Amino acid sequence: ARLALERMLSRLEMRDGCEVTLWRLDLLEHSWSREEAAKAAASADVVLISISGDQELPAATGPWLNLWSELRGNSAQALGLLFDSERLQAPEAVETALYFYRFALDCGIDSFLGWSDMTRAERWSKRCDRRADKRVGRELESTRNFEMQTNPHGL
Fold first, then answer.
1. Which residues, in sequence order, are CB contacts of 102 under 8 Å at separation 6+?
2. pLDDT one-digit tens code per residue, 3-62
3. What does the chain look like in DSSP terms, one character per residue?
4. Of 20, 18, 27, 23, nearest to 37 (Cα)?
5. d(CA 30, CA 47)
6. What's the Cα-to-Cα distance from 12 to each of 15, 17, 43, 85, 144, rounded to whole Å?
7. pLDDT band at 135 (very low <50, low <70, confident <90, very high)
8. β partners of residue 58
9. How far apart (Å, rounded) are the C-alpha atoms in residues 90 and 111?
10. What backbone phi and psi angles, to 5 degrees, belong to 89?
């Protein structure tokens, strides 16, 4: 979710003017989290929901949406739904998209659908590359330190 958001903000050249608050849908079962997330959503210009698309929504999603709807008043807002591109055709993704579209339509909220254009394999590869880069960097640093200890004058 964070990666997709960062990429979108970067493409739109909006990184500096945005305040980002992240919430997990599975934690909305706790009333405090649900209320705080609804307040945050009600005061936001854009609410982005990032999900894989191949699972049903947590049961607390409906109560959260209802509370958000009550708190938002008539403010202009947009709701974006971001899916993992590999799961976009899953039956659960279609049901979820319709669910959020109906909610947005009923509330008068603009809505849009998007997906990550980076595959899971690409994300995994980038993660591994970063870890390898860190490991190689640490190994180079320890080699330099060893060389400095064994030959402090570089001769």
1. none
2. 666 666 676 666 666 677 778 888 899 999 999 999 999 998 888 888 877 888 889 999
3. -HHHHHHHHHHTT-GGG-------GGGGGSHHHHHHHHHHHHT-SEEEEEE-SSSPPPTTHHHHHHHHHHHHTT---EEEEEEEGGGTTSHHHHHHHHHHHHHHHHHT-EEEEEEESS-HHHHHHHHHHHHHHHHHHHHHHHHHHHHHHH-TT--
4. 23
5. 20
6. 8, 11, 21, 20, 42
7. low
8. none
9. 20
10. -90, 0
Q: Is the pLDDT of residue 63 over 90?
A: yes
Q: CA 35, CA 41: separation in Å to the nearest integer?
A: 10
Average pLDDT value over all residues in the chain: 76
For residues 76 and 95, what is the distance between their CA atoms, to the nearest angstrom?
25
Q: Angle, to 10 degrees, between the axis of helix 91-107 and the axis of helix 61-72?
A: 20
For the segment 131-142, the average pLDDT, to the nearest whole number, is: 59
**Tens of pLDDT along 81-90?**
888 777 777 7
Pairwise pLDDT comparison (124 vs 79), residue with the higher score: 79
